[in-house]
Amino acid sequence: MFIHIDNKTYTVKAGKNLLEACLTLDLDLPYFCWHPAMGSVGACRQCAVKVYKDENDMKGRLVMSCMETVTEGLRLSIEDKTAKAFREQVIEWLMTNHPHDCPVCDEGGACHLQDMTVMTGHDYRRYNYKKRTYTNQYLGPLINHEMNRCIQCYRCVRYYRDYAGGDDLNVFAAHNHVYFGREKDGVLQSPFSGNLSEVCPTGVFTDKTLKEHYTRKWDLTMAPSVCNHCSVGCNTIAAERYGQLRCMLNRYNGDVNGYFLCDRGRFGYEFVNSENRIKQALIRSRTNEAATESEIMEHVQSLISMSKVVGIGSPRASLESNFALMQLVGKENFYQGISEDEAHLNRLVVEMLRSGCVHSVSLKEIEQADAVLIIGEDIWNTAPMMALAVRQAVVKTAASQASQEIKIPVWLDSAIKELAQEEKGFLATLTIATSPIDDIATHSWHAAPDDLARLGFAIASYLQPGKIVNTDFSEALLDKAKKIGDALKKAKNPVVITGTSCYNDNVIKAAFDVAVALNTGERKTSFSCVMTECNSMGLAMMGSPSFSVANENIKTNGHATAVILENDVYKHIPSANADEFFNSCDHVIVLDALHNATTEKAQVLLPAATFADGDGTLVNNEGRAQRFFQVIPNTTSQVQESWRWLKKLQTLKLHTLNGHALHPDDLLREMETALPQFEGITNVSPKHDFTIHGEKIPREPHRYSGRTAILANKNVSEPKPFNDGDSPLSFTMEGYKGTPPSGVVPFFWSPGWNSVQSVNKYQEETNGALRGGNPGLQLFKNKSDARDLFFNDVPESFVVAKDRWLLLPKYDALGSGELSSYTAALKTLSPQPFASMSTGSLQALNAKDGDMLQIVDAGIMYGSLPVKADENVCDGVVLVTAGLRESMGMSWGTRVQIKK
Amino acid sequence: MAQFTEERLAKVKEIIARYPDGKQKSALLPVLHLAQEQFGWLSSETMDYVAGLLQIEPIEVYEVATFYSMYNLKPVGKYMFEVCQTGPCMVRGSEDIIEYIKQKLGIKVGETTADGLFTLKTVECLGACGYAPMMQLGKHYREHLTKEKVDAIIEECRRNAAANN
After folding, report:
1. Which of A200, A470, A676, A733 has the most CB atoms less than 10 A away?
2. What residues form DSSP beta bridges with B119?
3. Which residues of A touch B58 (CB under 8 A)?
4. Which domain-ending residue is among A500, A531, A562?
């Protein structure tokens, strides 16, 4: 529809509010309390504009633009004198108590309040009275609190309580002494608390880890990145200065994480700077272990030409690195570095998504679901951002459907909340034990994996009678199935979520069968399976055998050199099996970024790049390939991407000339040819030689300071910038200044918009895609091998054994993560390893809460763990913390013995 | 820890019963009034106790109690002078009255005398502009205040306090 703004005519989308319409048209209009993900409340009065009845109306009336819907032919003015004076006055009031401490404030230079103050023109303080002051609170190691800076926009509590479901942050008192905080000092409990630092328009809530090594936004070198800490693949911005990773910021992707990150993703970056990093190549057989690159090459050449070489890939290494290893050792000698049990599940998920029977769902689509069924996965702890998306589906969808009936726009936040009251969309959580997400669930049921699978199949059978044969379901189970089935039937956009952490294929098959049985007529069913690592899907799609197979082969054939790629085998495999493997190998070459149990076994250790010092591509659990870019320039140390090391080794092995040009693009092109399932992967990002008007895209803002002085202690001449031949990005402040293609946006900035709010200048519309489409490439679009798939594999009911317990992992939203657990702040919030069992199980063991238990599997003894009694764990199951820094690989999903 | 008397506890139950199941939080305001009646002011222990009675989180009680100025979050004197300072009273000399009370009792606004008898508080319009300047003392309005009247009121309070001891 058409509207007129300051006498110019524009086309806008119906249903939007005036503020959204203005921002989408690239017009500057200040605001505070409005947030694109949280809608309008009209509280701050900052976005006032004049609206006119018709072209003859000279007077007009002031309205809050975030509270009015666009109408055909509407006339409004942003530039009107009264409106401008009003906006200036509002900010003058907001600033009466603000401490004006920008020079010592972490937000300075990336502050929405600064931007809006400049935008309105308020520049002189007339208020001569005392400012109110507050006592700040300790909110834990992640978030800093500085209440004096508050301008009472209420975004923090609206985000923390309403959007993220936290209950330990609130607003107290009234008038000009409003206080946002906890009831007393203490760690914020929500695993989504880090977003407060981006939601707060000023410096009340800031990133405490950044404070440890503070840098202004304009002084950061930034690059688009992808989170490494779970399988969801949220988009991030990695930020560097002085060779150190300084912080992670959210990178908007309308299909994936939107405006937010979980705390594991935001704060899990510091392992990159950790003491535990491998920076130096080592040859362990020498007295002087440290080796130069040429010494390494010389030494390794003999190792890889003498004997058979097997490659152990990694679910947390990039596609490029895994493929380079496959090329080095040959396809038949390349193995996934995970257990057969996990590899089997991952293969199954690939088969399901490739079948095309159901839609592989994005986080954004989960948010819009009208019914959600979760079978077997504790997504709150294994894929936190997915839990946040499910929360939006459950809390918002019911409300927005009701709102359409009475024509309230979805962005009118408080009206929608009043309308919805306690009403929620449908969510059923069928999991091993309770999870924080249960508090918004319609049905929660906790049982052993086989029983969860049986309920899943019973639901599928109820949805499509006759499709499941051999149904000997109990009345109680059928009753549950009916309740859940009826709710799912009513939905138009149901989502079924499952995951591999039950280590039970029946669970995943049951979830898939429910999704297929639901997928009838107009109903569009979506399916998602959470996996363990950031590139579990990419590795699984390569279709190689598991580590267990590698172990068997080496044991039989012997005499082999193993090349282990970024994989602590001891975290994936019970240590006895891993020891067996290393004992059978003649030589072990390990590439990794952090020292761990596997790097101890290496005779040759090569320092690998992390996501921050290298380039690569990851595939998330949805099948979305996403590219991350180097942000720490590497001028001195030996650290380089694993694929680069491996390509150099391959050159040695093949005796071809060394040093030919090599980019991720080349690797991906070779990969596309060798592995057709990755068709299109070369298009995941603009190529390394991509330029705009002959210019690369600068990683540094144009206000970057100190580059002539940064290295003056070494040389007073300014060094040449680090040359990045791998990507269209440059390590300088010079280059293309416009909006780059969405996949290579290194930071969000626009004139007058220094804070994260500048993302509105990069979107096609509010909450829409980034201009030119969201980055990332869905690999499961290829329907050429689509086929009907239905499993119909109903397992027997779980039977509690007298002296054996089913061993299952228990993940933690903050503590789990092989790499993120090396981050100091997250480590302090991580639980200590423990096991939990039902009181029934404990009685059977004659043990009590707090006792030390030892888990024994087929003669393998695991270390002792304290046991916690947990009523929600079903009898016959033992849950053990997984993914923590101390955690080691266990035979998950098998029945183990337990000794006191 | 201090608890409600039997009688008040019965009253609390009666208030809670007015609301549907799961909506006990609706009873928060009247229950806080009862608590203030018994304990004089709302300590965090008292608020935690109320949270327990209503089966809500303490933070939800703090949020509400801090919002309203009529809940005392610090100990107050036996007699609380709530002097109106809004326009009409101000025109009629409320500022002088407040100043006089401050001097006479040796306290500032918001403070309590050392003997625990008096607290001085300034409030906004109490709807008695026709009798300005005025203040509220307990459940009663004291109107057309003068310095002499203030003296008399303070004397009266001291007498009552002595008699009740």
Report:
1. A200
2. B80, B112
3. 183
4. A531
The residue with tokens 């939203």 is A813
The b/e string for A393-420 (b: 16+ C-beta within 10 A; e otherwise) is bbbbbbbbeebeeeebbebbbebbbebb
The domain of A375 spans 355-531
Which two structure tokens, joined as six digits, stand for A29?
């209009």
CA A840 vs CA A277, A476, A844, A845, A869: distances in Å: 44, 22, 6, 9, 9
Residues A66 and A197 in one domain: no
B59 interaction partners in chain A (CB closer than 8 Å): 167-168, 170, 182-183
Asked if A171 is an interface residue toward chain B (Cβ–Cβ < 8 A), one would say yes
CATH assignment of the domain containing B49: 1.10.10.1590
d(CA A173, CA A183): 12
H helices within A656-733, ranges in order?
664-674
Q: CB under 8 Å to B22, separation ≥6 — which residues? A: none
CA distance A848 to chain B (A): 29
Note the pTM of the prediction, 2 decimals: 0.94
Whether residue A374 is found in the same domain as residue A502: yes
- Over residues A218-269, the pLDDT tens digits come to 999 999 999 999 999 999 999 999 999 999 999 999 999 999 999 999 999 9
Amino acid at B80: M
Given a cut of 70, whether residue A657 has pLDDT beyond it is no
Contact B57 A182 (CB under 8 A): no
How many structural domains are present in chain A? 5
> Per-residue DSSP letters for A360-380?
EPPHHHHHT-SEEEEES--HH
ipTM of the shown complex: 0.85
* Residue A555: per-residue pLDDT: 86
What is the rounded average pLDDT of the residues A89-94? 94
d(C-alpha A108, C-alpha A211), whole Å:
13
Co-location of B114 and B149 in the same domain: yes
Residue A256, helix vs strand vs coil? coil
If asked whether residues A45 and A87 sit together in one domain, one would say yes
Apex B5 CA angle, B1 and B7, nearest 5? 160
The one-letter code for the residue type at A882 is: A
Q: Are residues B57 and B89 in the same domain?
A: no
On whether both A521 and A403 belong to a single domain, the answer is yes
Task: Say if A518 falls within a structural domain.
Answer: yes
Q: Rounded to whole angstroms, how far apart are CA atoms A66 and A104?
A: 32
Boundary (domain end) residue, out of B41, B65, B89: B65
One-letter amino acid for residue B25 of the chain: K
Q: Mean of the pLDDT values across residues B40-60?
A: 95
Tell if the CB–CB gap between B59 and A173 is shorter than 8 Å: no
Q: Is residue B74 part of a domain?
A: no
Q: How far apart are CA A629 and CA A613, in angstroms?
A: 8
Domain span at B19: 6-65
Domain tally, chain B: 2
pLDDT of residue A449: 96
Banded pLDDT at A785 (limits 50, 70, 90):
low
Task: Please choose, from the candidates A888, A808, A874, A879, the residue with its C-alpha nearest in 3D space to the C-alpha of residue A500.
Answer: A808
The residue assigned the tokens 């524009």 is A10
